[in-house]
Design goal:
Strand 3 and strand 4 form a beta hairpin. The protein contains two helices and four strands; from the N terminus they run E-H-H-E-E-E. It holds the Pfam family Serpin. InterPro entries: Serpin_CS, Serpin_dom, Serpin_sf, Serpin_sf_1, Serpin_sf_2.
C-alpha cells in the first residue's frame, strides 16, 4: 500500500492555527522566520506472504495463537500499539490481488 496525502485542508478544518498560522513558533529550530507551507503524509506499507510451511526448527515458541488469513477481498487494517494505546496507521486495501 503506497500513498501520499495533503493534510493541509484537514488540519485547517481542525482549527489548528498554531500549526498552520503565524502563531507557530519555530525559533528553537532556526532564527529565521519559518512557516509551514505544506503538510504531507506519505506511507508505504508492505505485507509479504510466507508460503513456506514451518518446520520444527522454525516454529515460534508457545505464545499467542497464529491466525491464518486469506486476503483475497477488500479489507481494513490498523497498526496499533496496545502498550501506548496509540493508533499509528489505519489503511484500506480495495484490491489485494494487485501489486504495487
Amino acid at each position: 500500500l503506497r500513498g501520499s496525502y495533503d493534510l493541509q485542508d484537514l488540519l485547517a478544518q481542525a482549527e489548528l492555527p498554531t500549526i498552520l498560522g503565524t502563531e507557530l513558533n519555530l525559533q528553537k529550530m532556526s532564527n529565521n522566520n519559518l512557516r509551514v507551507g505544506k503538510v504531507l503524509n506519505s506511507i508505504f506499507f508492505e505485507l509479504e506472504a510466507d508460503e513456506k510451511e514451518p518446520t520444527e526448527s522454525t516454529q515460534q515458541p508457545k505464545g499467542p495463537e497464529v491466525l491464518e488469513l486469506n486476503l483475497n477481498h477488500p479489507f481494513l487494517f490498523a497498526v496499533y500499539d496496545q502498550d501506548a494505546t496509540a493508533l499509528y496507521f489505519l489503511g484500506r486495501v480495495a484490491n489485494p490481488l494487485t501489486t504495487v
